[in-house]
Amino acid sequence: TIAILFSLLWAGQGQQLVLKELHTLHRWTNLSLGDDQSKGNRFLPVDVDIEYGDEGRHRTFLTIPRLSLVTPFTLATVVPEDNAVVDNPRLEPYPNGEWHVPPNNCSGITSAIRTFIDECWRLWVVDSGQVNSVQLCPPQVLTFDLVKDELVQRHSLPPNSYNPSVSIFTALVVDLAESGSPNRCLGGKAYIADAWGYGLIVFDSLTGRSWRIEHETMKPSTMVGLARSGSSQAGIFTVSLSPSEVKDRFLYFHTLNAFDEVRVSLTLINNETLWKTQNASDVGGHFLTLGTRGIQCESEVMDQSGNLFCSLISLGALISWNERSNYTADDLRVVAYNPHKIKFVTGLKINRNAKGEEELWALSSEPRLFVGGDLAETEVKFQIIGCRTADLLANTPCSVGATDATPTAA
After folding, report:
1. In what order do the strands lie in the sheet with 112-117?
2. Element counts in the chain: helices (H) and strands (E)
3. Is 261 exposed, middle or buried (0-12, 13-18, 19+ CB in 10 A)?
4. How far is CA 241 from CA 72, 84, 134, 173, 224, in A?
5. Closest CA to 191 of 259, 275, 278, 129
6. Using 50, 70 and 90 to split pLDDT, how confident is the model at 75?
7. What DSSP element (H or E) covers 9?
8. What angle do CA 366, 67, 33 make, to 5 degrees?
9. Which residues contact 233 (CB under 8 A, 6 or more apart)?
10. Are the C-beta atoms of 251 and 240 separated by less than 8 Å?
């Protein structure tokens, strides 16, 4: 409730509740996908990524999970001519239209749901293989070279890694080898949260193998008598990693309906042999509950300074916590409050701009879209909002590398 938000503010060294102007890169009132609106091509994106190139050039990526077979494409970029267009910019399929039709041939992209851009100019894509909860193809992890816009690697998840028509992937983060390593840009490990399957999937692209991890902390707080549907029954919803230069690194996550944050050693998670043997049941004590927020978080992401950002459900706020501190209300900070823009955040990313500065980007949607509610034709359905992490932490006006314009008003 709002009372909890006020308690967080006052605990955070007497912060005052002040509206934070975040930069709106794009926003949509029109849900039609493509030029022919008569076909009923409605789209509802769930993830976002911003790729920065030379001279400030940028590309905006969106995943659009297929709700029906008529959806023309499921992974999109804003067309280059509309990069500076705020309202209803046009979208085009990535890498091209041939990858998206037909949606059930399993050699293209069936239903993209999560993306991640690494430091080697590669786009990682998680394809659920589902259309409106029907499992048409096995889930897969695709890696594209963003310089050539060509496929680098494809990995289909083995049958024991997911639950057909049940698994829904709500987070993806990729970890590369240490700087200077000869294999740094040849491989990488992808960590995928399976919220409705209650598990974590790890894919090692260098070996081409993947494994699944399950633990009680990955299940929703209460499961008795309830089906696996609705947000109250979403399990592990997020996944974040300690900065790459930290000696003892951890993987962080939480379930959607819990107030707690959990961490586990990344070395343990990366031990493929352990999770494929009987000894996996002996590591329960390594999943440590850090503490409680007293409130629900949805999407989260950690920067390279160890600051974990999380969006608060229904409160229009972003909070941050540094992994070197305790996990209590005294250690949580509200770094942005804007109920006009921070709504239901389904995608939260940190990308580096052309100057090497970290920026936080969020895909914020109107919650009524997910429950069949009616929205006015001119009402903003979803928007991409951003701010440099330095501006969030220092409480200075937001700026982003994608444009020199000032933040747009709510």
Report:
1. 112-117, 122-127, 140-145, 150-156
2. 4, 26
3. buried
4. 34, 32, 31, 8, 31
5. 275
6. very high
7. helix 2-11
8. 70
9. 196, 220, 223, 226, 227, 257
10. yes
CB 23 within 8 A of CB 408: yes
pLDDT digits (tens, 9 = 90+) for 265-323: 999 999 999 998 866 667 878 999 999 988 889 999 999 999 999 999 889 999 999 99
Structure tokens at 200: 């974590």
Is the distance from CB of 85 to CB of 29 less than 8 angstroms? Answer: no
- In this prediction the pTM is 0.92
**What's phi and psi for 19, nearest 5 deg?**
-65, 130
Contact 64, 124 (CB under 8 A): no
- Please, what's the largest Cα pairwise distance for the chain? 57
Structure tokens at 33: 């996908």
**Cα–Cα distance measured from residue 65 to residue 168, given in angstroms and rounded to the nearest whole number:** 11
Q: From CA 225, how far away is CA 259, in angstroms rounded?
A: 21
β-partners of residue 63 are: 47, 75
Please state whether the peptide bond connecting residue 102 to the residue before it is cis, i.e. omega within 30 degrees of 0: yes
Residue given tokens 């309202």 in the structure block: 87
Please list, in sequence order, all residues whose beta carbon lies within 8 angstroms of the beta carbon of residue 394, skipping any fewer than 6 positions away: none
Contact 298, 255 (CB under 8 A): no
Beta strands in 37-101 (DSSP E): 47-52, 58-63, 75-78, 91-93
User: Residue 227 — very low, low, confident or very high, per pLDDT cuts 50/70/90?
Assistant: very low
